[in-house]
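Predict both folds.
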Amino acid sequence: MKVVIFSGGRGSTVLSKRLVRQPGLSLTVLINGYDDGASTGEVRRFLGDSLGPSDFRKNASRFANELNTCECALIELFDLRLPVDLSDQDGVCAVKMLAEQRIDKLPVTVNDVRSVVQQLNTQTLSMVADRLGHFLSIYRTGGFAFADCAIGNLVFTGCYLAEGRDFNRAVDNYCGLMGLPDGLIVNVTNGKNLFLVALDRNNHFLASEEAIVDSAQKNHIEDIYLIGSPFDELEKSSLEKMDKVAAMECLQQRSVAPVANSAALEALERADLIIYSPGTQHSSLYPSYMTPEIGHAITANLKAIKLLITNIYEDAEITNYQAVDIADRARFYLREKDSRDFPDPLLVTHSLINYPDQARSGAAHIAPGDLGLIDDPRAIRIGEYEDGSSGFHDADKALTPFINTIFRQRRSLKLAVLMQEAISADKITQSVLQMLRHTASERLPNIDLISELESPLPKSLQEFLPFRTIHVLPGDVRQFLSESDYDYVVLFESSGMYHGGDIMKLIS
């Protein structure tokens, strides 16, 4: 089974863990690189032409830990942040000593780093040192703020430089360091450096991804945009003075359409299950959805289940949103801001909406909203999907029914045909011959033929039939079927009134 999940850094954690542990399942996680806060923002400023690595780094650590693909100390090292009060002098010294594998010379201000690195084997340390050497190859004094920087982001920077400033190859390089399988973590675009900005409903310009998700602001987002370079202060000031229509036109003119990663499109086209996960919608998810051709690839996949799972609690950028608002906005961006006419059922086949127990329901929980706004009520699943009071979904409850449905569809069904009302073996034989004449032998399903005559069918007939025959006395049929594990049983009146070929039409 092939599964694709759209994800940010943490919103899909429990869902992804459930999926990656499932035997017989191949997972692809689609992520965008528009994060520009904290040390990711510093990496982007330092490199000048790179997307942000943090969400890729967080997912890589989570999967490496779950799959046990590398040393635990390597995961711990990549997630470790340098001290918030670290001087740039000690920061660059620490990176140099790691690159030279002189662990005993690390500054005392990074003793946490020393204790973790000492646990790495020689080969792993050598690979880390190599990437940090690439980082140092372009470092100039004062050119990077090391305080509070995740070491994994420094290593990713080295991967980016080692791969000739190709972001998607850098993702593969970094994941390879952690022993992750190819194609597990995929950037949704071709890797071109773009910046996420937004306009809120009060016509306030949010000039960065960090501003969009700022928990102190409780933003009400009007729309999001991807631009080729950040606005300077003069441009910001000019934009703030415009009315909403003019501001939106200005941002649209500055917008740059990203190019979808061919690997992402291929994964979506081949998927059996596509999951739109909960998370920070306007930074982690909606920007991925609005990538040109992503919605088209999803629409073109007619066989997949497409499951949209709405948030349990409010996030900073979806203040006062209801579940139906999240779902509606997702479709808006999947249609590339309604510029495409993709039908709803081809984008989302099922919406999973949390409805908390009233005793626990509070202002922080996202309400379902007016479900009448969703055209097809068959597409909605409403229930208490939160795992206790954790704020996270119960992954088994949310995903297992859909996973089991797909696995059932992919395995051969176990079928039986019960020949009823037959007064002789000849009547059954005639019905069986009609069955066989109406089905090519290579398309014949796995069937058990059950007779309820007083005696078994003749061995001369059983010998030539391409399926198993079972004799059950009339009084024992009900008990036999109740104890069987058939997916379907066809009850066929075989007195001669009906044509046996109809059995195969029904089964097909």
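Second protein follows, with its predicted structure tokens after the sequence.
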Amino acid sequence: MVMPARTDVPAAMLVLVLGGCGTTSASESPARPAGPSATVAVAAAGAASAEPSAPAPRRASSQGRHVYEGTVAGKPILLRLRCEGATCSGYYFYERIGESLRLVQTGPNAFDELVGIGKSARVTGHLAFDDAPGGERWVGTFTAPPRNAAEAPKGEPIVLSRVARTGTPRWMMRSFSDKSAKPANADCKVHIRSFELVGLGDEVQEERINGVFTPERLAVEHAEPIDTPLTETCGKGGAQCDESPKGYRILCRDFNGRSGLYLDVEARPTLLDERLLSVRSEFGFDGGGAHPSDGVTGVTVDLRDGHALDARDFLKDPSREPSWESFVPPAFFRRHGGFSRSDVRFALGTSEGDRRPPVWEKLEWTEFYLTRSGFELVPGVPEVMRILRHEVQHVPFARVASALLPSGPAAHLYAR
């Protein structure tokens, strides 16, 4: 059984819209000079044009999307900012930790760093930059709030460089953890380890795909912002959830009052290049059913249009998949003697309908993912045999070469 992915979540629950005060864009042109000085300026410009000129440095422009990496107080971070009009908002995270620190604008090129949301949000730092975002470098000062009245504020350097869009992406670890604020219900918790892509050639596509795999979104069936309308996650009147220290409603008990519900997910890329992203997700959860569940699932995304790959993207005849179980070592079946080959299903599968929606519209996990050398097939088994889902089977592309399309989204991995 594949852990269901919820697709009817209100946008307000998936995206935190951060407001702020106005800034002056560094792209605004200065007033045009008048009178004699203007004549001198034009003459000087004409004289200069006769000489070879070096390329002009990129001017800072605060409009649009900005992605920077570098250090805050010497610690590596990645920062994302989006500026529309005079307002900028975004987040950053320390690479070692991966948890989002929201940025709320407080003045020209100045931001508060916030942990938590809604009434639980608290300021944990102040970032002041020397100029507007948009240049190749962005520097400033980080100041932590004083711990007491006697402590003097201490500034730490911020040194950032714009991330190059080379078209060859990489990924960075992200995380989200939260739990019930009630000590007696400390077992009600959510822990998500996920990732974020950096360096795609298309910045809009990068933002969309990252929105699918943000850890807060992967947690949405067990954690929802407390300042959004109640959903079915928390049951009637929210009775099945507890408030968390970070401002979320955490699914904590089933409708009969049994407590200790939890969610643990690790989603990690197994293949990433300029064309494809393939992800393995290992999960364990207790969502209030008859018993907890766990397993492995996967998804492979075409980075050009965002659709999830299935048998149609790999096989000459998607309706007749190879006999995948014939490639599984006999030891797999001997090791688990309580079932037969007919109890286990291996398949790439085909999603319903001819339309291939992008994953940011509808994410459906599958029972396979890719590595650079082949297919990783998740055993499809009944819930009572779910332990087998963790024993993913590798089938090299070479073993099924005759069945594979000579062209297609993944052909660069196996076509020779």
